[in-house]
Amino acid sequence: MNRRRLLALMVKEVLQIRRDLSSLYIAFVLPLVLLLLIGYGVSLDAKDIRLAVVLEQPTPKATSLVAAFRNSTFFTVTELRQRQLAEAGMVAGRYRGVVLLGNDFDALVGRGQQAAIQVLLDGTDANTARLTKGYVEGVWTKWLGHEARAAGQSLTLPISAETRVWFNPALESRHFLIPGLIAIIMTLTGTILTALVVAREWERGTMEALIATPVGRLELLVGKLAPYFVLGMGGMALSVLVGLVVYDVPLRGSVWVLALSSSLYMVAALSMGLLISTIARNQFVAGQVAIVAAFMPAFMLSGFVFEPSSMPLWVDLLSRVVAARYFVTILQTLFLAGDVWSVVWPNCLALTAIAAFFLALTWKRTRKSLE
Known about the structure:
alpha/beta, abc type-2 transporter like fold, four-stranded mixed β-sheet, elongated, transmembrane helix, transport
């Protein structure tokens, strides 16, 4: 590998980036826009759940329980008098859940007997239904404790559970999603950086002129990857900064470990994009293949939203060849838990193997000919 030719290739790529700013848009503007849109738009938290409370006969204790639901930050409460109106509203989609309090609620509670509360849930969104059920039970338990203290008694439960949440005490889903989202976005931008740019050279005929020079295959690969690696790492740094500043996601791990793992992943993404461009040689086709072959598997199979272990076995096995699965695990660990080496190193080794695989394929497909 001739260093002068390699340097000339890198300078040529830098000049091309300066003349055609699309690479800068892909590296910096696209991650910023996607982080802001998806970061604020995607959340696993359920807030302001529309809840109808049917109070057939207003009584002091029943009214007190309704007030407890109103004071909860999770619910937007509508008080009704008839069950039929609540059921019709849930069918129409106006309510996510219905709580029914019977006429004998006060009498049963006053005598210390079990007072039944019926809860109807909209199961079309299973995740929201489960959260609503848990929130209703939480409000009910808290209200029972308040009533017991007001009566000078202690609330006795058969089991007392003391819960402590590690790594994400506030249970903010955004703290879990943003690190994974950074990995997904860098998959898209890293792959497109080389897929579209190199395919554009094939369309414009500049690649043929480059092939006619004495440049070797290794010089060509390194000269293409190095400038876009710097761009990709710059976009990665910007994405991490947005996660820390805008979304207030903690970074408990080492910056150097983050830089190392990000470098391995960026090499894998850029190599995959370069491989796509050598096969497609057309910008439109390269873009479509990049989305289907890189972005969609990273989004669906990386653990960003869906836990791979909960998938069917064959899907779980398929996800193990997706580089984003290992990078998402590394980022979530570094951001929320810290430098957990038993997690970081095996996933870094997997990223190294995947990056080497794509580099080898790209090397094999890159020929000094037009065929």
